[in-house]
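Write out this protein's structure.
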Amino acid sequence: MILIGIEFMINAAILNFVAFSRYDKFAAGGQTFALFAIVLAAAAVAVALAIILNVYKYYKTIDPTRIDQLRD
């Protein structure tokens, strides 16, 4: 639930950057930063998905209560 809140705050910041960049027609810094933040969020999702897939491949579950040992 905390991650959803953080994602909402990042999206709100992106929206503010784009809105203020639109207000000042000659400044594209807000749109550039928004694009950079979106790319970073997509990369974080890709890393999380790769971790989840590797955990599932090794343990055959993604339930954290059933995963009780680390791989040597």
